[in-house]
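Input.
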Amino acid sequence: MSKLTFKEKQAHYEKVRRSNYLASLRLAGFDTSPTDLNKPLISREQALEKYRESKTVEPDSRPSLSEYPPLNLSSSLPDDPSLHQLLQLLHEELGLPERKTISLTTSINFDLGCNGADAQHLIETLEDHFAIDFVDFDSYRYFQPDGFDVNLKRKAKGRGNKVPLTIGMLYRAIKAQRWDTDELEGL
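Output.
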Protein backbone atom coordinates (compact mmCIF):
# COMPACT_ATOMS: atom_id res chain seq x y z
CA MET A 1 0.00 0.00 0.00
CA SER A 2 1.40 3.37 -1.01
CA LYS A 3 1.90 5.95 1.62
CA LEU A 4 0.08 9.26 1.01
CA THR A 5 1.84 12.53 1.59
CA PHE A 6 0.40 15.21 3.80
CA LYS A 7 -0.44 17.40 0.75
CA GLU A 8 -2.30 14.52 -0.93
CA LYS A 9 -4.32 13.91 2.23
CA GLN A 10 -5.20 17.62 2.40
CA ALA A 11 -6.29 17.65 -1.25
CA HIS A 12 -8.41 14.51 -0.75
CA TYR A 13 -10.01 15.96 2.40
CA GLU A 14 -10.79 19.24 0.59
CA LYS A 15 -12.36 17.35 -2.36
CA VAL A 16 -14.58 15.26 -0.06
CA ARG A 17 -15.56 18.32 1.94
CA ARG A 18 -16.55 20.22 -1.25
CA SER A 19 -18.47 17.19 -2.51
CA ASN A 20 -20.39 16.94 0.78
CA TYR A 21 -21.09 20.67 0.72
CA LEU A 22 -22.53 20.47 -2.81
CA ALA A 23 -24.62 17.44 -1.80
CA SER A 24 -26.07 19.42 1.12
CA LEU A 25 -26.88 22.29 -1.27
CA ARG A 26 -28.71 19.86 -3.56
CA LEU A 27 -30.69 18.52 -0.58
CA ALA A 28 -31.62 22.10 0.31
CA GLY A 29 -33.02 22.61 -3.19
CA PHE A 30 -30.17 24.47 -4.88
CA ASP A 31 -29.09 23.59 -8.41
CA THR A 32 -25.52 22.33 -8.51
CA SER A 33 -23.48 20.56 -11.14
CA PRO A 34 -20.38 18.34 -11.03
CA THR A 35 -18.33 21.23 -12.44
CA ASP A 36 -19.05 23.21 -9.28
CA LEU A 37 -16.68 20.85 -7.49
CA ASN A 38 -13.71 22.45 -9.27
CA LYS A 39 -14.82 26.09 -8.97
CA PRO A 40 -12.93 28.08 -6.34
CA LEU A 41 -14.91 29.24 -3.33
CA ILE A 42 -15.01 32.93 -2.50
CA SER A 43 -13.11 34.06 0.56
CA ARG A 44 -14.76 34.95 3.84
CA GLU A 45 -14.05 38.64 3.25
CA GLN A 46 -15.66 38.51 -0.21
CA ALA A 47 -18.75 36.80 1.23
CA LEU A 48 -19.04 39.39 4.00
CA GLU A 49 -18.65 42.25 1.51
CA LYS A 50 -21.35 40.78 -0.72
CA TYR A 51 -23.62 40.40 2.32
CA ARG A 52 -23.00 44.00 3.42
CA GLU A 53 -23.81 45.27 -0.08
CA SER A 54 -27.11 43.40 -0.06
CA LYS A 55 -27.98 44.74 3.40
CA THR A 56 -27.41 48.42 2.68
CA VAL A 57 -30.78 50.03 3.26
CA GLU A 58 -31.86 53.55 2.56
CA PRO A 59 -32.36 55.54 5.79
CA ASP A 60 -36.00 56.23 4.97
CA SER A 61 -36.80 52.77 3.64
CA ARG A 62 -39.91 52.48 5.82
CA PRO A 63 -43.12 53.11 3.92
CA SER A 64 -44.78 56.43 4.55
CA LEU A 65 -48.09 56.66 6.37
CA SER A 66 -49.84 57.29 3.06
CA GLU A 67 -48.78 53.79 1.91
CA TYR A 68 -50.63 52.15 4.81
CA PRO A 69 -54.38 51.58 4.83
CA PRO A 70 -56.23 54.82 5.55
CA LEU A 71 -55.80 55.91 9.15
CA ASN A 72 -58.06 58.31 10.98
CA LEU A 73 -55.44 60.79 12.20
CA SER A 74 -56.47 63.79 14.25
CA SER A 75 -56.04 67.18 12.57
CA SER A 76 -54.33 68.44 15.74
CA LEU A 77 -51.31 66.16 15.26
CA PRO A 78 -48.14 68.18 14.60
CA ASP A 79 -46.53 67.78 11.19
CA ASP A 80 -43.20 66.52 12.50
CA PRO A 81 -41.00 63.81 10.91
CA SER A 82 -40.28 62.16 14.27
CA LEU A 83 -44.03 61.92 15.00
CA HIS A 84 -44.57 60.39 11.54
CA GLN A 85 -41.83 57.85 12.27
CA LEU A 86 -43.42 57.06 15.64
CA LEU A 87 -46.84 56.53 14.04
CA GLN A 88 -45.30 54.32 11.35
CA LEU A 89 -43.53 52.25 13.98
CA LEU A 90 -46.71 51.94 16.07
CA HIS A 91 -48.66 50.90 12.98
CA GLU A 92 -46.06 48.23 12.12
CA GLU A 93 -45.73 46.92 15.68
CA LEU A 94 -49.32 47.19 16.96
CA GLY A 95 -51.50 47.99 13.97
CA LEU A 96 -53.30 51.30 14.37
CA PRO A 97 -57.10 50.94 14.07
CA GLU A 98 -58.74 52.50 11.01
CA ARG A 99 -61.95 53.54 12.78
CA LYS A 100 -60.43 55.15 15.86
CA THR A 101 -59.13 58.71 15.68
CA ILE A 102 -55.41 58.70 16.51
CA SER A 103 -54.25 61.73 18.49
CA LEU A 104 -51.57 62.60 21.01
CA THR A 105 -53.96 61.49 23.78
CA THR A 106 -54.47 58.00 22.30
CA SER A 107 -53.39 55.48 24.94
CA ILE A 108 -51.03 52.70 23.81
CA ASN A 109 -52.06 50.38 26.64
CA PHE A 110 -55.80 51.12 26.95
CA ASP A 111 -56.92 52.26 23.49
CA LEU A 112 -54.58 50.07 21.42
CA GLY A 113 -54.46 47.10 23.83
CA CYS A 114 -50.69 46.75 24.03
CA ASN A 115 -49.57 44.66 27.02
CA GLY A 116 -47.17 41.89 28.01
CA ALA A 117 -44.54 40.76 25.52
CA ASP A 118 -45.87 43.14 22.84
CA ALA A 119 -45.30 46.08 25.18
CA GLN A 120 -41.78 44.93 26.05
CA HIS A 121 -40.93 44.53 22.37
CA LEU A 122 -42.41 47.95 21.57
CA ILE A 123 -40.34 49.70 24.26
CA GLU A 124 -37.16 47.93 23.09
CA THR A 125 -37.90 48.93 19.48
CA LEU A 126 -38.51 52.55 20.50
CA GLU A 127 -35.27 52.55 22.47
CA ASP A 128 -33.32 51.22 19.48
CA HIS A 129 -35.00 53.29 16.79
CA PHE A 130 -35.16 56.66 18.56
CA ALA A 131 -32.28 56.27 21.07
CA ILE A 132 -34.51 57.08 24.04
CA ASP A 133 -33.01 56.61 27.49
CA PHE A 134 -35.68 54.58 29.37
CA VAL A 135 -33.87 54.56 32.74
CA ASP A 136 -36.86 56.06 34.62
CA PHE A 137 -39.42 53.85 32.81
CA ASP A 138 -41.44 51.32 34.85
CA SER A 139 -43.34 49.01 32.51
CA TYR A 140 -45.53 47.69 35.37
CA ARG A 141 -46.85 51.23 35.80
CA TYR A 142 -48.38 51.10 32.30
CA PHE A 143 -48.66 47.50 31.11
CA GLN A 144 -50.15 44.25 32.36
CA PRO A 145 -47.52 41.48 32.65
CA ASP A 146 -47.33 38.76 30.04
CA GLY A 147 -49.22 35.53 30.72
CA PHE A 148 -51.62 34.52 33.47
CA ASP A 149 -50.86 35.64 37.00
CA VAL A 150 -52.35 33.31 39.64
CA ASN A 151 -51.66 35.93 42.32
CA LEU A 152 -53.46 38.69 40.43
CA LYS A 153 -55.66 39.46 43.46
CA ARG A 154 -52.60 40.14 45.58
CA LYS A 155 -50.80 43.00 43.84
CA ALA A 156 -47.43 44.32 44.83
CA LYS A 157 -47.25 47.80 46.33
CA GLY A 158 -47.59 50.43 43.62
CA ARG A 159 -48.63 47.89 40.96
CA GLY A 160 -52.36 48.47 41.17
CA ASN A 161 -54.18 50.59 38.61
CA LYS A 162 -52.37 51.19 35.36
CA VAL A 163 -51.61 54.67 34.05
CA PRO A 164 -52.36 55.47 30.40
CA LEU A 165 -49.26 55.64 28.18
CA THR A 166 -50.14 58.04 25.38
CA ILE A 167 -48.66 58.73 21.96
CA GLY A 168 -48.02 62.28 23.20
CA MET A 169 -45.86 60.96 26.05
CA LEU A 170 -43.82 58.87 23.63
CA TYR A 171 -43.51 61.83 21.24
CA ARG A 172 -42.22 64.11 24.01
CA ALA A 173 -39.78 61.38 25.15
CA ILE A 174 -38.48 61.13 21.57
CA LYS A 175 -37.94 64.89 21.48
CA ALA A 176 -36.17 64.87 24.87
CA GLN A 177 -34.27 61.60 24.09
CA ARG A 178 -35.10 60.34 27.60
CA TRP A 179 -38.01 59.11 29.68
CA ASP A 180 -38.87 61.29 32.68
CA THR A 181 -42.04 59.89 34.25
CA ASP A 182 -42.90 62.97 36.34
CA GLU A 183 -42.47 65.36 33.44
CA LEU A 184 -44.25 63.21 30.84
CA GLU A 185 -47.26 62.34 33.00
CA GLY A 186 -47.77 66.04 33.75
CA LEU A 187 -49.32 66.48 30.28
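Residues 6-55 form one domain.
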